[in-house]
Amino acid sequence: MTVLSLAGARASYGGERALGPIDLSVAAGERVALVGRSGAGKSTLLKLLHDPARRDIAIMPQELGLVDSLSVFHNVYMGRLNRHTVWYNLANLVRPMKTEQAAVRAVLEPLGMAERIRSRAGELSGGQRQRVAVGRCLYQDADILLADEPVSALDGPRANGVMQALTAAYGTAVLALHDIELALRYSDRVVGLNDGHIVLDEPSDRLTEGDLAPLYAEPMEPGRATG
């Protein structure tokens, strides 16, 4: 069953084409890695796939969207704001309930952030902030994940741990990744972008890192999409 679909989608900024035309569909239970050079169109494609009106989609933007003045707890808790009444959310803003604290702590524990649950987001390092944004997506517990470079600020072991947590929680995901090793390891399909076009679309197990390396060279001509 197709859960995300674009047909002839285009995007432009300042009158200049940034993406498209793009045809792309994602099936339920499919993990898709978007790869390509910076500026190839990965972030723009994720934005086109995201429909804010759909509650079944969790989104992790590259800019993270954290509120620096709020605690780690509150930034993660925001993932479920739409599940509670305004009064319930206000009560947790003033004095977090023990049950909610325990639920958020359980999400933060495997990310190595449980001990910072009371820290303000603005006090954290770049890698810690990224893990808080991951925790918010995990806490949201939606059906589909769209994540833009979710481990760009993390080292090898930590990046692998976060990717394991995300892919374990979300059977359907579209992940923009610059690291092609992680892209191949944690997806079952790779979509390669270059100059705003899809130039590669293949199952991950048919590809090697060498197959993806040309995506990081000079812009390629469109029309190579396969699969």
Structure description:
The chain has 227 residues and is α/β, with parallel strands linked by helices. It has 2 domains: 1-56 and 144-227, Rossmann fold (3-Layer(aba) Sandwich), CATH 3.40.50.300; 65-141, no CATH class. 32% of the residues lie in helices and 25% in strands. The protein has 8 helices and 8 strands. The chain has a 6-stranded mixed beta sheet, with helices on both faces. Strands 1-2 form a two-stranded antiparallel sheet.
> Which band does the percent of strand residues land in?
15-25%
| Count of individual domains | 2
Tally of strands = 8
Q: What spatial order of strands do you see in the largest sheet? A: 4-5-6-3-7-8
Helix content: 25-40%
User: Per CATH, what is the topology of the largest domain?
Assistant: Rossmann fold
Under the CATH scheme, which architecture of the largest domain would be assigned? 3-Layer(aba) Sandwich
Q: List low-confidence stretches.
A: 223-227
Computed structural class: alpha/beta
Task: State the fourth-level CATH superfamily of the largest domain.
Answer: P-loop containing nucleotide triphosphate hydrolases
Please give the radius of gyration in angstroms: 18 Å
